[in-house]
Amino acid sequence: MHNAIERNTGLLIFGILVVASIGGLVQVLPATLDDSLGAPAPNVVPYAPLELIGRDIYIRESCSTCHSQQVRPLLAEVKRYGAYARAGEFAYDRPFLWGSKRTGPDLLRVGGKYTDAWHRVHLQDPRAVIPTSIMPAYPWLAARAANAGNDIQARLKTLRALGHPYADETIEAAPATLEGKTELDAVVAYLQSLGRFAVADVEEHAGH
Amino acid sequence: MTAINNGVEHYEDRIVAAFTFCSIAWAILGMAAGVYAAAELVWPQLNFGLPWLSFGRLRTGHTNLVLFGFGVSALIGTSFYSVQRTSHVRLLAPKLAWFVFYAWQLTIVLGAWSLLAGWNGGKEYAELEWPFDIAITVIWVAYAVVFFGTIARRKIAPIYISNWFYGALIIVVAMLHIVNNLALPATLGKSYSLLPGAQDAIVQWWYGHNAVGFLLTGGFLGMLYYFLPKQAEQPIWSYRLSIVAFWAFVYSYIWAGPHHLHYNAIPEWVQSLGVIMSLVLLAPSWATMINGVMTVSNAWRKLKTDPALKFIVLALAFYGLATFEGPMMAIRSVNVMSHFTEWTIGHVHSGALGWNALITFGTFYYLVPKLAGRPLHSTALANAHFWLALAGIMLYVLSMWAAGLSQSLLWLSLDDLGEVRYSFVEVMNAMAPYYLLRLVGGVLFLAGTVLMAENLRRTFAGARTLVVSAPAMVPAHAAALAPIGGTP
């Protein structure tokens, strides 16, 4: 049989395509069709405009290179970071930002752990608050307007097309809510939003 | 240059030289970015408060330059070289092939610029934003047309093994790239994934793991299957083993992605399948390694005189090491220790430096003298490069292994009251000596690469590109290989 495959270009291409597709069809495709994986947990809501801008800046600066957002169900990890991650928390995360490396700590539950003021200092001069920190300083965030690209509505509309339930009023008012805010404000708002779903989620589970 | 002189076809080799030298340039630039990023982890002041120089952006630039600049340029170039020689014909549509060259190099330049400027899709090893994703798709289709078109008009009936692997690279990477980058654009430099959260993660690591599988493993195995027998002047040890290993490789690699998401918020059955298939993967990986080592087994003496072969044999050793380590790290109880730590970085670099870079260097040391039509400028320099590279890898990989193990042991350590024993900052502080050692390793490896660039530049400089003709078949040879379209 291989005699035929190795003598026919079309057959070789077809063979590779079929054999390489099996795993994806059995393992990956069902996951992409499984709505229970993509559906939001009951208390999960989309990011507010300022938080969304902050999240997009987090992506722009590749923060997920060094910070994971994925607390594993291991005792030491839950002790250190808080409740472990559940799929329903990430329904409005496009793309997902779980990361693959912790050069810095996990940030999934960082919201509320520090004050806004601490974050502002830390982002602009990490070594002012943690002397041995190896994180880069991000001084440019404070100097740029959060809606400098004037594209917040385009961002929100794109996400709405993907199923994020943004109301017309939210989209309409978005540029106004970003008025006078800097990128630093946006990143701080995003960081403070992280973890807000976990608490309610745990309470809900405790109630059952 | 005309394609046909006196009825004889000439191979299109200038494009091979062009890809080779661009690949080397990207290697130096990409590794330099990596070295600088490593230095930033030792001295964070080196970020200088500049957006494009900050660690996150620079590291993304580093991975893209070495993967897609250095790696893919080397793969396309060597596939064009070997597909002509294993098919006994000139490349199909050389103009289209040159389009692939220029368009790919332009994509690398603009892509690197866009990443440093902050355009970032946010998915690891697929960070380039949607305009680039579309450009890459078009270029890749053109590459497929040239490659498979050349095979289709070959004069030798069997399609040689190296071409199966290069072929699998082209087909599967196309599939992965298109599916993983499905996104809705919001602006020119910003798009949002079609799938959310956990689903996005599963698709991403199906892509991420198989970009490693079909690009860094499959593609470079294509390189191995052509250039190793050439250098060793020995036929492949077992043709049958290469058939079995090839199809087992294509089948089983694709399942292993979820081992990047152990204990993450995805279904357990998906993770478990990932573990099993990662362990299965050891068989085809080592089958190929054994096939390679046995192919060299009658030519060990050549290692004394031929620096190119030395690189390729060492690459095989690291290939065996990395493809053993990978399945071990896919076991969940081991993964608890390795995930999120420097061990991952060590594993990646034992593969990327030890396997991918070394086999590419070995291939270039063989290829450039062939293209220049004269011997290598300096064997001594090549030997110096060999030892610099080996020392660099050892420092890099050993320091990251030690760092990763320390990290996970310290992170997971609980005191008598059941609380975490060490703060995150304490563990981070413990990494400092390892980061410094890793930086030294990276500098040594980069220094070796620079030596190679100079050695190969001198080998090539002033030489007229050799015009190599497709061989005319002698009847006995031709009959044995059962040529298509009658005896020429």
Describe the 3D structure.
The complex is a heterodimer of chains A (208) and B (488). Chain A has 208 residues and is mainly alpha-helical. Chain A is 52% helix and 0% strand. Chain A has helices at 2-5, 9-33, 35-38, 49-60, 75-81, 116-124, 126-129, 152-161, 168-178, 183-193, 196-207. In chain A, α4 (49-60) packs across α10 (183-193), α6 (116-124) crosses α10 and α8 runs antiparallel to α9 (168-178). The N and C termini of chain A lie far apart (59 Å). Residues 200-208 of chain A have low confidence and may be disordered. Chain B is mostly helical. Chain B is built from 16 helices and four strands. A two-stranded antiparallel sheet of chain B has the order 1-2. A two-stranded antiparallel sheet of chain B has the order 3-4. The longest helix of chain B has 36 residues, at 197-232. Chain B is globular, with a radius of gyration of 23 Å. Mean pLDDT of chain B is 93; it is low at 474-488. The chains are: A mainly alpha (208), B mainly alpha (488). At the A-B interface, α2, α4, α5 and α8 of A face α1, α2, α4, α5 and β3 of B.
